[in-house]
Amino acid sequence: xxxxxxxxxxxxxxxxxxxxxxxxxxxxxxxxxxxxxxxxxxxxxxxxxxxxxxxxxxxxxxxxxxxxxxxxxxxxxxxxxxxxxxxxxxxxxxxxxxxxxxxxxxxxxxxxxxxxxxxxxxxxxxxxxxxxxxxxxxxxxxxxxxxxxxxxxxxxxxxxxxxxxxxxxxxxxxxxxxxxxxxxxxxxxxxxxxxxxxxxxxxxxxxxxxxxxxxxxxxxxxxxxxxxxxxxxxxxxxxxxxxxxxxxxxxxxxx
Length: 255
What we know:
Layout: H1 3-17, E1 19-21, H2 22-29, H3 33-45, E2 50-52, E3 55-57, H4 83-95, E4 102-105, H5 109-112, H6 115-118, E5 124-127, H7 130-138, E6 144-146, E7 150-152, E8 157-159, E9 169-174, E10 178-180, E11 183-186, H8 189-199, E12 202-208, E13 220-223, E14 230-233, H9 239-247, E15 251-254
Parallel strand pairs: 4-5, 4-9, 5-6, 9-12, 12-14, 14-15
Antiparallel strand pairs: 1-3, 2-3, 7-8, 10-11, 11-13
């Protein structure tokens, strides 16, 4: 089997499965481990996959190889505690948006995954989260409003010094580091400040949070339960907290 065919098989497998071990790719291509490791190295240099220990993972974002300053800018699959769950959460969030809705999206790895599901929509996105914005721009997504300001490299976002009262949207969609009876918490103070600004423009707050963060206190309190309208999480979330959310009139989707 030629290198070109092997590379095609490897990329196709990753697109369908997200992760692949050296052994899986060895079996897939009937090649030696040394050959597969060489293929992974070559494809990693080309920006077609991300090399990980004993294997490879799918690239979630445009290649950054031609722009060294972009390394670490986009989330990688290995950054997620449960990528498959986070992906389902993001997909459900997009499904709740209506055509031509105005949607504000905050910072976070799970909100980033909404990007690929937005591509075929007519939803208007308002955001200062640069990884998501850059991804959508590279995919020629036309319905974007960049909430401008000073660039914060540490949080990958634009910090606006003033508000704009002309904006109005259906949802503010945010991630978080924890969700308890005290509400949604985040560890990044700057993110907290910026997403609080966006709240005044949105009719409802939608929280995207992985099941292992339910019942966990994750830092600064971002929104109380009274301020949250919708929570999307995984099926393994603590049922006691889920019941508490429902009692507080929060619509919960478990994916």
